[in-house]
Description:
15 helices; Aspartate Aminotransferase, domain 1; 16 strands; single chain; 4-stranded mixed β-sheet; 7-stranded mixed β-sheet; Aspartate Aminotransferase, domain 2
Amino acid sequence: xxxxxxxxxxxxxxxxxxxxxxxxxxxxxxxxxxxxxxxxxxxxxxxxxxxxxxxxxxxxxxxxxxxxxxxxxxxxxxxxxxxxxxxxxxxxxxxxxxxxxxxxxxxxxxxxxxxxxxxxxxxxxxxxxxxxxxxxxxxxxxxxxxxxxxxxxxxxxxxxxxxxxxxxxxxxxxxxxxxxxxxxxxxxxxxxxxxxxxxxxxxxxxxxxxxxxxxxxxxxxxxxxxxxxxxxxxxxxxxxxxxxxxxxxxxxxxxxxxxxxxxxxxxxxxxxxxxxxxxxxxxxxxxxxxxxxxxxxxxxxxxxxxxxxxxxxxxxxxxxxxxxxxxxxxxxxxxxxxxxxxxxxxxxxxxxxxxxxxxxxxxxxxxxxxxxxxxxxxxxxxxxxxxxxxxxxxxxxx
Length: 398
Ligand SMILES: Cc1ncc(COP(=O)(O)O)c(C=O)c1O
């Protein structure tokens, strides 16, 4: 039987793609998906020109560390390029267990599980432990992977104002006291550079019996005396039930981790679909992260240099009168307030050989349109001076 004339066919989807305004704008101005031709440390080559990378999350600058590169190469030679299977079936290897044990110890937890992407680790942490009928208390400015995890969980979500313990208390005071509750926060909000007010937030969470999940993708390697992250920074290890994050930032690899008590991690291994049905991380990426973790504990100079560079960079931006949204970390936004101001600023930096990323509403709150920048321990004095000159030039273009 012929389908009705009125039934929608695939044209609806194809038209959606063709007419998408955001895609049209992206292709017209081409600020994203720029493919670099080469990279060495913090220098990238784009359209035949060398540029300073000022928006990478290689905070400790370890992705070109000789020991990290050698570890990745040696592991690839020994194990091949892929695990070709899920941990739950044919993909589990001794190197996974080794890194998990080391990460758990480093984070002060009993157990850990690693995945192919930070996005997956963080998303599945929420999706696995929350379920229909539960209430999730989430900071309004959470990363997209946490919102995806929240959606997948089918739990009810209650948002509280960004980094506001007062609003968390307010929201909790009217929430369903009989429901199981999960408090979901980030350690460092990378768009803003803010550090979570973890002591107050976890105190309130504890009062209401919340299970606490911390995404510390940008705190790991950056905060705390040894770079153990936001919980070390505040001395709060046992107040957080699960710490998850990414290995694509300070750990100079790709992949993600979830760390918690043994019981909780074993529950994840049984119940997380993203864990059970997705291939395990490769030997090369695991070995790179393992080497970076070792370096973090034996070469403190990288963390020291990261913070020295950050201090110098922020002083320069403030001297130019730029708004850095009270950033407290090496993730430093330059808030310009509208896309009309962001684009010429970004372009001026690019023209002067400094690579940054634009973030415009709705990716950021209206009026907070910004340039994303991040400092690395690997930036040299000379590069910081070049960046300062480029910033002064871009300010004049506003
Ligand atoms: C807060 C936060 N969580 C998780 C992720 C996901 O990590 P990955 O890029 O390694 O998948 C990111 C990545 O930008 C992030 O900023």
